[in-house]
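Q: My labmate handed me this sequence with no annotations at all. I'd like to see what the chain might look like in three dimensions before we decide whether it's worth expressing. Could you predict it?
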Amino acid sequence: MRVGYGAARLPVPPGTPMGGYLDRPGDSAGELDPLQVGVITWSDGRRRFALAVADVICVNDDLSRQARQAVSATCELWLAATHTHAGPETGCVPGGGPTPQPWRDRIVEATRTALARATAAERPARGSAHQGGLRDVGAARGMPSAEPLVPLDVLAVRDPAGRLEGVLVVLPVHPTVLPPDNLLVSADLTGAVRGAVRARLGPDAWVLVAAGTAGDISTRHTRRGQDAAELDRLGGLVADRCAELLDAAPAAEAWTPGSVIGWASRRCSLARGSSVADPHALLAELRAAHERSRAAGDATATRMALSRLEGARLLTEAAPEPAPGTAGTGAARPPAGKPPAPASITTEVSAVRLGGLALAALPGEPFVATGEDVRRTRPDPTFVLGYVNGYPGYLPAAAAYAGQEYEVLAGRVAPGSAEYLATTVADLLHDLDTPEDS
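A: Here is what I predict for the chain of 438 residues:
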């Protein structure tokens, strides 16, 4: 197996609309740290797999399709978002949408450049998979009492002599340390982890950080601030844990010299749906709850109430307006001049097998429990990535629909959608693990 890495800058000019927060007070005003598209390639001599990770809020279907058109038929390309909330707005709307120009072309061009650099840098390499828990960085953001523990995956790539070339880190934590009023472009937590891990490994090692199943996980209950110093602190915690996993023995061998690459994908249709009967009545209820928490001076409760309120606002934007005289009853009429939304959302799941290591790709924002469900279907190491090749929005676990958290209110898919995608990608993994003549 030959492995290569390449990266390309993704400049963001001042005055660029930023994605991630509904209450952003303005456009970008400068740069805190640079954005990039990073690419790792694996080649078995016949086929090539490329994982591209862009420092953007989301990757829509149109962006993924255009990026894939730039590669050969013998190369499988996944384009993933780090989901930074301090980058350019790339059309991140619930249910997906078009990627605005010039970002569609700019991201594709940066991906093409990084891919070419990675391909040119391919060398014979060994791989080892390291998996463990990460404490005190991320936790379920809708549950203040939840244990601050998430899964952490690290793939170490070494030359034949054993020298570390670089690492892939899969981190299921929302990169939302910087606050909504931040106007400086940044890769946020992802960039801080890249820098901290590189500092531990040395200047010659490359580092690619991909988002895992982070839909319900953030630093809301673990961070001590929302500035560059806190980014450094949290990035250091992740880097320390990565170093511990790399030093721990034994590690699972990811591939052998004769390993081959296999991949599969499937388009899936997800039904639209909501657990809320009357979104407009809920909006009024949550607005009052937010005001009560503000008056009580409870910062944590206020932030959580604001998240729910923002989710309800998104839900009412997609819902019909109440008919006159029927507010609070659930009766509604279609908004004037607005066509009804399609009954379903089409998206994609993918899997790739690199020797004994498997990567599973889920679109949008799956919950960490969904990633764990996928991992349990396979005895060998399996890394589960989110935010890949499409953006259907939040993909809450079925149990979450009983509550009123932001992810459920802002989501557009019916209960059971996440489980359907998890089962589908598990089936793909099973097929890749099954010899063709069995």
